[in-house]
Structure to design on (140 residues):
């Protein structure tokens, strides 16, 4: 099932792209001469690609850490569905590399996510917001 990992990839991309957009906006507003060199369509496309690669790599294990298989479930007549019915459902099981070290796996996964995706990216934006803009008087 790809929906869960793809959801996390998109969430990570949106989070990081908002941080990069803030950086581009800061450069354009506070460093207009530098913005003419850095804030180009080519660099924006590069940033988008790099953000997607980071988002996919940060969620890569989610594509392989679990699998689903079909099971038949017998529903007795007493549950209001008429005569006895067998329905098909699915069961999620974690891969062996996860089940052998489940606490370690999820601890490392969430620590990496919290530190690098949330804390570092938010800290960079906070530090950049505190920087003094360069004016024409400072240059000349």
């Amino acid at each position: 099932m790809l929906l869960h990992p793809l959801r996390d990839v998109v969430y990570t991309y949106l989070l990081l792209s908002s941080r990069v957009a803030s950086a581009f906006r800061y450069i354009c507003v506070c460093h207009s001469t530098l913005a003419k060199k850095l804030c180009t369509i080519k660099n924006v496309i590069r940033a988008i690609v790099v953000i997607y690669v980071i988002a996919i790599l940060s969620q890569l294990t989610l594509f392989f850490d679990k699998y689903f298989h079909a099971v038949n479930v017998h529903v007795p007549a007493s549950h209001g569905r008429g005569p006895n019915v067998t329905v098909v459902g699915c069961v999620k099981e974690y891969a062996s590399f996860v089940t052998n070290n489940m606490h370690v796996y999820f601890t490392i996964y969430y620590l990496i996510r919290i530190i690098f995706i949330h804390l570092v990216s938010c800290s960079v934006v906070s530090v950049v917001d505190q920087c003094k803009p360069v004016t024409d008087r400072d240059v000349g």
Q: What stands out?
A: The radius of gyration is 24 Å. The mean pLDDT is 84.
